[in-house]
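Subject — a protein and its fold
Fields — amino acid sequence, structure tokens
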Amino acid sequence: MGFLSVAVPEAYGGMGMGFVDTCLVCDYISGATGSFSTAFGAHTGIGTMPITLYGTEEQKLKYVPKLASGEWFGAYCLTEPGAGSDANSGKTKAVLSEDGKYYSITGQKMWISNAGFCSLFIVFARIEDDKNITGFIVENDPSNGISMNEEEHKLGIRASSTRQVFFNETKVPVENMLAGRGEGFKIAMNALNVGRIKLAAACLDAQRRVTSNAIQYANERVQFNTPISSFGAIRYKIAEMATSAYAGESATYRAAKDIENRIKIREAEGASHQEAELKGVEEFAIECSILKVAVSEDVQNCADEGIQIYGGMGFSEDTPMESAWRDARIARIY
């Protein structure tokens, strides 16, 4: 149906849709399960976007059409055992070959979504003693020094692929460097700015579904000869769930439209799509961060109240609240 390509320009096999449209697709696709949401977001966002925004024309023509069509899937290798929030402190090394034709990458990455089935990685490594890391496009070829641990056993998003990835002198052509030497930290931060508002969008339909399920159960569950939806405590919980869902949705789409407007203004002024999107999102980086924090907490609280409304049944795997609560928890960590 082309949903993997909504944010990709038409020149590279995508739909070239606006920022609000991409948030809408993310919103409603992500409502199915947290695992599907993770796979979709990791591929369309941080797995593809660094190439569309920072890649050379040759890189975009070579890789983006395959990612946009779903022929290939992408993953994002930034986090390391000693480099989480401090993303620029990674120890993975990239050493230029004597003939200057390729870099050998050696290091360990962890918590890599989509690792188990991806076709390429966006990998961040440090060249010599550079202050900042550098980004590379690395094709997933096990014969080229790439290996992985088994799938992680996680609290939630259990159907998503999450693995450690090891690079052992993995050869990467020099033409697969993204942007330029030492530009990796900038790429990582700007990609995560977009990722933050998309994460907020990805939590919205989960809130709607949890709230709808809670209302349905409260109407059907009868105690003291009365549907529990008539009890003040339950009505208060449902009102709070609906309020937070509405507020998060409104704020997310307001910010998305603000970003889209800035992108259009910059394009009208002569900026390329890459430049316009980067600057448009950068202008609303604070709003993106606020939304990431607020909506990820709201969806967790919503799922928690959903369990409470279900009572003992909410603690059972036979009802949707149990998995909704587990899946929601990761959003506050991302």
Remarks:
- The beta strands are 74-77, 93-96, 102-113, 120-127, 134-139, 146-148, 162-173, 177-178, 222-223, 226-227.
